[in-house]
Design brief:
Blueprint lengths: L9 H18 L12 H7 L5 H4 L7 H23 L8 H8 L10 H11 L16
């Protein structure tokens, strides 16, 4: 019986989707490659991940309702990825980091310096750097 006939609102959809997520990941046996009639939860648990129950508690959501919040969360990851792709000498260049940070709007203007300072204080300098970054001097 098609389930869509019973969905009349966002709340109905979220409830139906959460139920299917639970069924698909915790109850339904899978026959895909290396699944051996196990559930995705069983596979993750057998892989010895720490707290697999927590990993599998991803919330059911309507992306259109949450995209602004999600994009703010992802921006931090995108900035870190960009910094990681920089040549070593540029990773500790204050001007480069500030210029990169301007592409993202997760920084409140008064907090941007604090975040960059924290990044510098947790990043080890390569041995070849002779001059210390002014933000890293304690």
């Amino acid at each position: 019986m098609p389930r869509a006939e019973h969905i009349n609102s966002k709340d109905d959809f979220l409830q139906e989707a959460a139920g299917y997520y639970h069924y698909f990941n915790f109850i339904r046996e899978h026959t895909g490659i290396a699944m051996n009639k196990s559930t995705p939860f069983e596979i993750i648990k057998e892989a010895n991940y720490i707290k697999p129950e927590r990993l599998m508690q991803f919330p059911t959501m309507i992306l259109e309702d949450s995209i602004h919040w999600l994009s703010k969360t992802v921006e931090v990851v995108l900035l870190q990825a960009e910094v990681n792709q920089l040549p070593t000498e540029k990773k500790h260049d204050l001007k480069t980091l500030i210029n990169l940070s301007h592409k993202y709007d997760f920084f409140e203007p008064e907090n941007a310096q604090k975040v960059l300072t924290q990044y510098h204080n947790t990043s080890p300098h390569p041995v070849s750097v002779k001059r210390k970054c002014p933000l890293c001097v304690k």
